[in-house]
């Protein structure tokens, strides 16, 4: 019982493969002839049986002498009716209500042809009661012959699955159309080990109803009781677009049950050729966000991406590489990836070249702190658009190394921005963080200085500047989610700094979609994604433990370590001054930036000089002067060792 990223691999629900699972779906002429022969035999037997019933076992003159001729004529009409309704091309595995209606229509056509022929022959024919009884018997038997293999196969597959050692007793959350379709798909397939016990649904009118042969057991709030009573081991969530708040409630309800979870991410009407079982996926942390994801659509932008050239710093990182991928996916013809990590840069170049062979992709191993190297790269490629994603971002580590934070986040940013302005780049996108709002950390303060520095440089240029503030990015390198996964995989403990710590969260793809929309839609100087409510880190930890199939505080303990140097209890997205100018544009908060610090140029020069001189105390003092709202959480001189220990 595990998450996809933990020690055991996930087990997606496969659809039945016709070859592997022993089904032959392509009918042959022999098969069609046999089906028609069955229909003819059924018609003959039904007519004789109806006659014997009508005459109580003794068929006298004149009917007995003409019964053989009537039988031959009825068989011919019945076969013709089956042929017209294509009942000989029957799918014994995928038949449904419309197919049953075709059987009824074929029966009526056959009986109608038989009656019309007798009338035209001016023959009295069999009694009308016999015709009606024969139609009912033939239709019933034809339906039975066609549906019994599917019904028998379903029961056999259920029996086989229930007898397997790895069989999982499963309940489907949602007794609507998507849940019913998922159940039918599971019943047809023998290539999984899920024994569906019943449904769970919040609609009280559905309780105790039978859906697809399975009972609606009760409501979602009854899950703990139902799971215990029916020994349920797995939940398949088949409620399209189930709010993340409700997902978190389900996880909280089931936190003591050691269940597995899978979810159907969209309504089946959008699946086109795919069936629900193939779309079931392990419930993940991304499903806990209580909002619809933001996506990048080039049609929403004012500038065609397909005609641009771009340079991305930090191109080998989790954010930078996703920026590169989405740019190329949108049709960007020329891309330059810059990073100090040559291994990740090389690997990403191979992946992107394979996926986008028509694009020109260049990689440059470079340190953004090297001004001459940055200028040389910009002279060589002359990019129109610059995405500055390279940065140091680990809060506790940078509390112990403020000089390194300044060298990378301030000096490096100045070098990239000056090189872009020198080569007249048209757009410059600076990736910042919500920690830059009233910062309590060196990282947040340096990112705030970076915001002001780039904005000040862009004031005297035609370059369009935009800063984007991120919340916590789920799954990015060094973020809390992969750390929790590692801790859960080894049995814990899962470490949380404080039970009240809250953070804004966004996915990697969401973060990059925000970057590209901000860059190419000309929203304004500062863009922030509307990320909904902040999520408690301890709740995230508990949900991840539950998703892994364990019980929080029982199988995997949670320990509280205390806030680390530079960390806040909660984050903010905008300052009070920025809030006054805030507008909302398609789930993106847009604000005007306040004017830069009046002595910003001189202050940055002094700050960089102090960092190059490795003077930690002076660096912190100069950051305080440049960012008046910066309130350091510790005294850096005496507490560097403590900060380094806390960071580890």
What percentage of residues falls in helices of 4 or more residues? 40-55%
- From the alpha-carbon coordinates, what is the Rg to the nearest angstrom? 35 Å
CATH homologous group name of the largest domain = NAD(P)-binding Rossmann-like Domain
- CATH class of the largest domain, please? Alpha Beta
Number of helices: 21
Mass-distribution shape: elongated
Count of individual domains = 3
Q: Summarize the main sheet.
A: 9 strands, mixed
What's the assembly state of these chains? single chain
CATH architecture of the largest domain: 3-Layer(aba) Sandwich
Helix/sheet category: alpha/beta
Strand content: 5-15%
CATH topology of the largest domain: Rossmann fold
Q: Detail the poorly predicted runs.
A: 1-27, 266-279, 635-648
Which characteristics define this entry?
about 650 residues; alpha/beta; Rossmann fold; 7-stranded mixed sheet; 22 strands; about 45% helix; about 15% strand; elongated
């Amino acid at each position: 019982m595990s998450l996809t990223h933990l020690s055991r691999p996930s087990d997606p629900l496969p659809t039945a493969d016709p070859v592997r699972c022993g089904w032959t779906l392509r009918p042959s002429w022999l098969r069609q002839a046999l089906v028609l022969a069955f229909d003819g035999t059924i018609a003959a037997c039904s007519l004789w049986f109806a006659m014997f019933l009508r005459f109580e076992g003794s068929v006298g003159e004149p009917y007995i002498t003409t019964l053989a001729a009537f039988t031959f004529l009825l068989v011919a009409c019945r076969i013709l009716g089956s042929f017209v309704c294509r009942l000989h091309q029957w799918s014994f595995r995928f038949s449904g209500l419309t197919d049953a209606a075709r059987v009824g229509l074929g029966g009526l056509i056959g009986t109608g042809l038989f009656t019309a022929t007798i009338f035209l022959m001016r023959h009295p024919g069999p009694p009308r009661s016999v015709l009606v009884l024969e139609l009912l018997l033939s239709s019933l038997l034809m339906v039975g012959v066609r549906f019994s293999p599917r019904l028998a196969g379903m029961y056999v597959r259920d029996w086989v699955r229930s007898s397997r050692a790895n069989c999982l007793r499963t309940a489907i959350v949602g007794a609507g159309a998507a849940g019913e379709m998922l159940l039918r798909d599971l019943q047809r397939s023998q290539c999984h080990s899920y024994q569906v016990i019943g449904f769970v649904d919040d609609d009280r009118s559905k309780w105790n109803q039978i859906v697809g042969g399975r009972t609606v057991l009760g409501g979602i709030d009854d899950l703990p009781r139902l799971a215990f009573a029916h020994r349920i081991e797995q939940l398949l969530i088949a409620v399209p677009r189930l709010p993340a708040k409700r997902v978190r409630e389900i996880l909280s309800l089931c936190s003591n049950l050691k269940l597995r979870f899978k979810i159907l991410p969209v309504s089946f009407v959008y699946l086109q050729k795919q069936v629900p079982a193939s779309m079931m996926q392990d419930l993940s942390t991304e499903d806990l966000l209580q909002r619809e994801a933001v996506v990048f659509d080039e049609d929403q932008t004012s500038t065609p991406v397909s005609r641009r050239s771009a340079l991305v710093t930090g191109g080998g990182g989790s954010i930078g590489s996703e920026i590169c991928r989405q740019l190329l996916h949108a049709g960007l013809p020329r891309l330059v990836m810059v990073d100090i990590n040559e291994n990740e840069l090389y690997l990403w170049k191979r992946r992107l070249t394979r996926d986008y062979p028509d694009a020109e992709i260049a990689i440059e191993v470079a340190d953004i702190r090297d001004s001459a190297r940055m200028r040389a790269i910009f002279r060589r490629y002359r990019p129109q658009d610059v995405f500055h994603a390279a940065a140091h971002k680990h809060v506790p580590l940078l509390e112990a190394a403020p000089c390194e934070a300044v060298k990378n986040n301030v000096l490096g940013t100045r070098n990239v921005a000056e090189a872009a302005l020198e080569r007249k780049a048209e757009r410059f996108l600076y990736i910042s963080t919500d920690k830059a709002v009233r910062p309590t950390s060196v990282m947040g303060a340096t990112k705030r200085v970076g915001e002001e520095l780039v904005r000040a440089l862009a004031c005297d240029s035609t370059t369009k500047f935009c800063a984007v503030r991120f919340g916590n990015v789920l799954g990015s390198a060094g973020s809390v989610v992969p750390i929790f996964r590692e801790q859960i995989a080894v049995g814990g403990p899962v470490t949380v700094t404080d039970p009240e710590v809250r953070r804004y969260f966004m996915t990697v793809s969401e973060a990059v979609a925000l970057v590209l929309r901000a860059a190419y839609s000309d929203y304004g100087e500062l863009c922030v994604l509307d990320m909904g409510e902040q999520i408690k880190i301890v709740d995230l930890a508990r949900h991840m433990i539950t998703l892994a199939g364990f019980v929080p505080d029982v199988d995997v303990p949670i320990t509280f370590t205390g806030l680390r140097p530079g960390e806040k209890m909660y984050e903010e997205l905008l300052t009070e001054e920025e809030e006054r100018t805030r507008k909302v544009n398609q789930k993106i908060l847009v604000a005007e930036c306040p004017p830069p610090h009046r002595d910003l140029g001189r202050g940055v020069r002094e700050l960089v000089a102090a960092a190059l001189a490795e003077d930690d105390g002076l660096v912190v003092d100069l950051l305080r002067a440049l960012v008046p709202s910066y309130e350091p959480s510790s005294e850096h001189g005496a507490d560097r060792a403590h900060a380094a220990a806390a960071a580890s």
